[in-house]
Amino acid sequence: MGGRAGGRRRSRKQAAEAHRAIESRLVQADQEIGAILLGESSESDLAAARQQALERLASHRKHMSSSIYDQTLARAVENRLRDRHGLRRLSLLLLLE
Q1: For 17-68, how does the pLDDT look when each residue is reduced to its tens digit (9 = 90+)?
Q2: pTM for the whole thing?
Q3: 82 FRET partner, CA 20 to 30 A, in 11, 66, 74, 91?
Q4: What is the DSSP string of the chain?
């Protein structure tokens, strides 16, 4: 069962590994972009993004543990900043293939 079938399996495996490597690099780039946005945004932009996130999550807060809520709030603030600057998540582009 070698030959072409074995080559195709190897090729698929290599493609899957390459895809995972690309995805990992995109996730890392997204994290770096998020950190830059948070670090470089003005206090007023951060406050506005936080207020929007708080309003959007208000009805969900009672259904979340405090740690999950804090993580979700941080992600929502970052998303508001990304929206404001027109920056999509790079890792989501893989889902569009």
Answers
A1: 998 999 999 999 999 999 999 999 999 999 999 999 999 999 999 999 999 9
A2: 0.75
A3: 66
A4: --HHHHHHHHHHHHHHHHHHHHHHHHHHHHHHHHHHHHHHS-HHHHHHHHHHHHHHHGGGGGGS-HHHHHHHHHHHHHHHHHHHHT---GGGGGGG-
Phi and psi angles of residue 18, each rounded to the nearest 5 degrees, phi first: -65, -40
Say if residues 91 and 21 touch (Cβ distance below 8 Å): no
Least confident of 12-16, 44-48, 50-54, 92-96: 92-96
Tokens 């259904």 found at: 63
**What is the distance between the alpha carbons of residues 64 and 67, in angstroms, rounded to a whole number?**
8
Domain of residue 58, residue span? 3-91
Residue 74 has which token pair?
Answer: 């941080």
**97 domain residue, yes or no:** no
Query: Is residue 96 a part of any domain in this protein?
Result: no
